Structure formats: C-alpha cells, structure tokens
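Troubleshooting: if your tokenizer reports a length mismatch, compare your output against this known-good record of 217 residues.
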Amino acid sequence: MTFICGIEEAGRGPVIGPMVMAGLVIEEPDEKKLVELGVKDSKQLTARQREARYDKILAIAKKYQIVILQPKEIDEAVLSDSMNLNLLEAKTTANILNELKPDKAIIDCPSTNIPKYTEYLRNLLKNKIDLLCAHHADENFPVVSATSIIAKVVRDQEIMNLKKKYNIDFGSGYTSDEKTQSFIEKHWNHYPELFRHSWATFKKQQEKSIQSNLSKF
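Known-good structure output:
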C-alpha cells in the first residue's frame, strides 16, 4: 500500500499571527474519499465549509502533523543571511516528512524555482521519498487540498485564540484588511509578539511613528 502525504501552509502572507504548516498522510485509494468530501483549495471554501470537513478529513488520514510557526521564528528566518521564508518552509516540510515517513509527498511549492527547491528539500530528508513539488498543488491534488483545509482551520483557531487572549480585534491579520491596517497604526508598539517585524507594512508604520515623534522636538 502506498502512503501519500500532502504538505501545505496557511498564513504565509499576513503581518499578524503565525503561519501554520500541515502534513496529512493517506492511503492512495482513500484519495477518492477526499474527493467525495468535496475537498478544495481552502480559499475556495467558506469558514463553515472548511470546519465541516475538518474532522472528516482527519478520520480518513492515517497520520498527520501540524506545525505552528510564530512571528518571531518567521522574522528570524526572513532577517537571516542564511535563511528566508521559502527555506523555512522547506526546513519545516522536511521535519514533517521525516516524522510521517510517507512513500510519496506532494508539496505546494512556494518557490518560483521548483527544481532547485525540490533538490534543497530532498537533501534535508532522512528517508527516500518520492517528491512532487508543484505550483497550485492545493487546487490540483486532493490530498493537498485536504491539507490546506487542515492548515487553514488551525490558523483561524490560532487567530481567534489570540483575539480572546488579548481581548482585541485586529481583523484577519492581512495588510489588505482595513481593520488590520488601523490596528497596526494604533498598536504597532503595544503587542510586539503579534507582529511580523520583518514585514514591510510593520516597518513602514514603525518608521512613520519614529519620524512623527522626532518632528515634535
């Protein structure tokens, strides 16, 4: 029996909150069950639709792993001379695959250079795995679609937990969200652990506030 693993992330782009990476292993014939569930790229489903599929997907899976990368870890990778966000994804993907040990893995590739990314990832693996890195894998491969749903539901829960913990509402955390933009403008220096300090949106607000304060002298 062939065990296939899908790898996908949720929350790569926002300036607030973590990025969640997930790996989901199924037996190859069970891909039909995922299709019957109506799995799609998580962005094509509503929050309610994703949540309705979440437990059903995990019931089909033989194994799964979820990794939550906090803003500080993301900043360290982005600001490092030897690391970046793509390499952090590759490193995390390798850790997941080394733990789950599937026969085959399909990865939604974040890099424009698929062959180079695949080679880098393969060198991090402890076991021989048939790797397929592809763009839009979450749209074209049911196991990756299912994994994208798992990652997105977990990230949404993490965001909800942060809002409850701090009793604040910063919106979605994406810079395209007006509520998020307003929150950054007012509170960029109040909740340092929430923000990705390496993001241009945060740095621009930080510089703007510093310049504003200097002009008062």
